[in-house]
Structure prediction request, 519 residues.
Amino acid sequence: MNVRVNGVSSPAPDSPDTTAAEHIRDRLGLTGTKIACGTGVCGACTVLVEGAPTASCLLPADRLEGREVTTVEGLGGDHPVQRAFAAHDGMQCGYCTPGFVVEASAFVDSWRAEHGDVRPGRDRVADALSGHLCRCGAYEGIFAAVDAACAGEFDTEPEQAPPRADALAKVTGRARFSADLAPEGTWEGVIVRSAHAHARVRAVDPGGARSAAARRPGPGQPVDPNPVFTDLLGEERTVRYVGQPIAAVAAPTAALARAAARAVRVDYEPLPAVLGVQEARAQDAPRVYPTRAERQAAPSNAEGPSLPGRWDGNTRGPTTVGWRGATAVRRLRTAAERRDPRLVAQEYTTAVQVHSPLEPHVCVASWDRDGSLTLRASTQAVSKVAQKAAERWKLSPERVHVLSEYVGGGFGAKAGLSVDMVAATELARLAHAPVRVSFDRAEELTDAGHRPGTRTRVALLADDSGDLAALTVDSHGDGGVSVGSTTAVFGLLMYGRSPRRARDFDVVTHRPPGAPMRA
Prediction:
């Protein structure tokens, strides 16, 4: 029995382990349906099944047999909702847009059938779309678009072009994100991650996957379908957080790759771990980086190079900057002794903030026969990734091609040569086929970057005219295994030329590394 998708008879699913979203995307090529959370929470994968909005990431593919399915491509590009989204700029990165549009089309059609061309109002629209998330925060444009479509304002093509040049590509599902760019024959890669917060890896058994490059197939010869394996730890055999990449496997299908990953066996020697900042400061706390070489190799969460700082156990710093810092300290101390009412001293904290773009970290890597490398990657830094890839794999710059047509959110966490790119590239070399590595939501929440938490003590003093007379900022960053806190240094860049001292510290723990964060 076949499936009718967008009015056309389509092949039925051929794997019991495939979700409807995977079947629609990878078998039918309808990539407007996006996979983001994988748990039915975000709405990006929404399709209509017999007219009802459905989270296709949760629906087994075999449940589609004999049913009528409509994806965003099936709306044709001229549905009033699509025109309204484009006109009201109801989007930013566009990754969540197809799911919103499909859900909204069903709501608008049913609303107008019952109420006519009457505006439902913002609250009613928000309730109807409550199963959808927009990480970029384009909700006001989305709600206004659906409200206007219900009122019949977009039954015909608007006279003005939409404010966003790529709006039509995003509302129709034609916008191609990195995971949508997989060539025919692409294998799926899965990363094997640490189950311990701190351990020495004694051995990794790849199971049935092969870890050495197979003979490159000649013309007309099939690619060896056996799973391939690559070690991601290199010479450093210590893992320092749960979820740290250890190895990666790839196979011709996602189901086979997942099975191969489960077959990998890691022999750990567990070591003491420190998970809290207060615990990490104790003199007898386990050291995250016991040697100078390990400390120098610590990952950075800074926008640029980390300022130098000495280490005291698990605390790095202070990295001190300032202007007339001694004067600032003296003025503040004197003001405190005389209980000057113009002195303000407070401590502030910020929590760890996970970046969590709806489009996960994903890369499709392929090697050409001439030895050049192509990375179809979700990145905010195309040139930087190309440069780093050329350096890592010892290629001339003209032999590295990085393609990133659309980026489904990044917020600072997609600015370098990330582990999905490294794993996909190494696996593609072994498989002699393109390989796609995409984080699932658990991986994205754990190991894709977060804005470090902070605890910051600020003291400032006003002079007789109310201007700033002195300022000190002491900030402790909580970036897991990473360093590079620069919260205090911004005190040097603002507030005129008053005397000030800014000191940044990092307190490292056995938790995942942070990364820069941007709006």
Notes: The first strand starts at residue 3 and ends at 5. Residues 72 and 102 are 6 Å apart (CA to CA). DSSP finds 13 helices and 23 strands in the chain. Residues 97-115 form the longest helix (19 residues).
